[in-house]
Amino acid sequence: MVEIEGSSREEANWYVIHTYSGHEKKVKTNLEKRIDSTGVDDKVHRVLVPTEEKIEREDGEDKVVENKLFPGYVLIQMEMSDDAWYVVRNTPGVTGFVSSGTKPLPLSADEVEHVLAEVESKAQKIEIDLDPGDPVEIRDGAFKDNTGVVDEVYPEQRKARILVDIFGRETPVELELDQFEKT
User: Fold this and answer.
1) Domain termination site, one of 96, 120, 144
2) Is the pLDDT of residue 121 over 60?
3) What is the CATH number of the domain that holds 84?
4) Who wins on pLDDT, 132 or 156?
5) 7 inside domain
6) Cα(72)–Cα(27) distance, rounded to whole angstroms?
7) Is residue 138 domain-shared with residue 110, that is, in the same domain?
8) For 142-153, what is the mean pLDDT?
9) Residue 63 lies in a domain
10) For a FRET experiment, which of 15, 112, 156, 165 has its CA 20 to 30 Å from that of 123?
11) Is residue 4 part of a domain?
12) What's the average model confidence in pLDDT over 41-67?
């Protein structure tokens, strides 16, 4: 992120930039380099690609995957001026500002607050593609080769409570996420 001391953030607004989908991080890097090299770093304060982390199971292993909250868009906090607009607009991968015609539209204070709160909450929350009621097959541990049903998921502990049929009775068992697989 480009953080500037001594500049007036009160005059800066947040804008949304269109990018080629899948190039958001590259555009962010290019923007930060161009901002520094062209001398508009007193006008551009932050460049943000809102993301969330999710845990996905692939081939029986958990992988942390970073998903973009707004694919094809990058947020930028800047004081709009001709030179800053020119630098941002002519950065490789940027296709334009979200605008009404030719003039870029800043986000409202409520929109900015909502997006930043969403980014912060997603950064602290790990999502797992597992819901109560999902059938699972246990791959490891004392209940290996049994099947069960997800009763509750604990993403922070990377565990789940699975209901396993033992002697004709549903028994809750707490397992690590890598001990079972969704069927």
Assistant:
1) 120
2) yes
3) 3.30.70.940
4) 132
5) no
6) 10
7) no
8) 93
9) yes
10) 15
11) no
12) 82
Identify whether 151 is part of a domain. yes
Coil, helix or strand at residue 105:
coil
Going by C-beta distance under 8 Å and a sequence separation of 6 or more, which residues neighbour residue 138? 144, 145, 146, 147, 148, 162, 164, 175, 179, 180
pLDDT at 174: 94
108 and 163 in a single domain? The answer is no
pTM here is 0.64
Sign of CA dihedral 97, 27, 74, 12: negative
How many domains are there within the chain? 2
**Burial level of 49, CB count in 10 A (0-12/13-18/19+)?**
buried
Q: What is the average per-residue pLDDT within 113-125?
A: 75
Q: Is-contact 75 47, C-beta < 8 A?
A: yes
Same-domain pairing of 51 and 138: no
Query: Can you give the residue range of the structural domain that contains 104?
Result: 13-120
- pLDDT confidence band for 73 (50 / 70 / 90): very high
93 and 143 co-located in one domain: no
The mean pLDDT value for 46-63 works out to 79
Question: Six-digit token pair at 59?
Answer: 């081939």
DSSP 22-83: T-HHHHHHHHHHHHHHHT-TTTEEEEE--EEEEEEEETTEEEEEEEESSTTEEEEEE---HH
